[in-house]
Amino acid sequence: MSFLVSAHELARLLETGGTRVLDVQFALGGPPSIELYAAGHIPGAPHLPLEPALAGPAGERGRHPLPDPQVLQEHLRRCGVDDDSSIVVYDQQTSLAAGRAWWILRWAGLTDVRVLDGGLAAWVAAGFPVASASPAPMATVQADATQGLGGAEGRGTVTVRPGSLPVLDLADVPRVAAGGILVDVRAPERYRGEVEPIDSVAGHIPGAVNLPMGLMQHGDGTFRSPDEIRGLAAEAGIDGSTVVATSCGSGVTASQMVLALATAGLDATPYIGSWSEWITDPERPVATVTG
Hints:
By secondary structure, the protein is α/β, with parallel strands linked by helices. Helix content is about 35%, strand content about 10%. The strands form two sheets. Strands 1-4-3-2 form a four-stranded parallel beta sheet. It has a four-stranded parallel beta sheet with strand order 6-5-7-8. The longest helix is centred in the middle third of the chain and has 12 residues. The chain is globular and about 55 Å long. Keywords: Repeat, Transferase.
């Protein structure tokens, strides 16, 4: 099964019926996701917020750890999701949040989950309609986000089954870095430790190799072809012959990279805690690149 759908393919699916579309627009450090949704979304798509539905509270497990299964289940049910739902998720354009949603929903036991390639921007560029909603008063924003604002018709019955996909735990990171391939998907300057705009420590996990996620997409946010992605992955030693794990700042872009590799037939497991979890213990080693 292809993990991506085009805007035209999604339009045909919606005409046929039976597909649940979920809006997961999100901007790190930007406006609340519910405001992005209110500004424009695919008609009939309810909003599933990355925080708290797809990530737990920030802390020692990193900035975007795994969500509480009961919280995720409640959000999905309020979005009308059942165990056998066919789901398409989308965000603004780059599939950053959609990649996280794609992975989390499959980790939660849902088996038919795809991503709108190019997100809402691709939908608009194809000439399809967009709905909007008046921004809610600030006092009700959190309540609306919890309820999954927008068009889900009826409450779903999904039962979340956490652990349906493997995840790399903190204790296993050194083993994969030494005996497999730990891919740091952040920008090269963050990997090298030259800059760190978000976390308190710059650098990378020792043994990790750098394969920036940005290389995997075109400028319009759509993914490169499977052949192109396989070629880029091969440069980092990824050819399907060894264990691969992905890491970023907080496990969101790491999930996006898992999606990118999956479109090319390559398996990988995200380290959800990623760099923001690794640096919570000052005794853990940090690597940088100089010269």
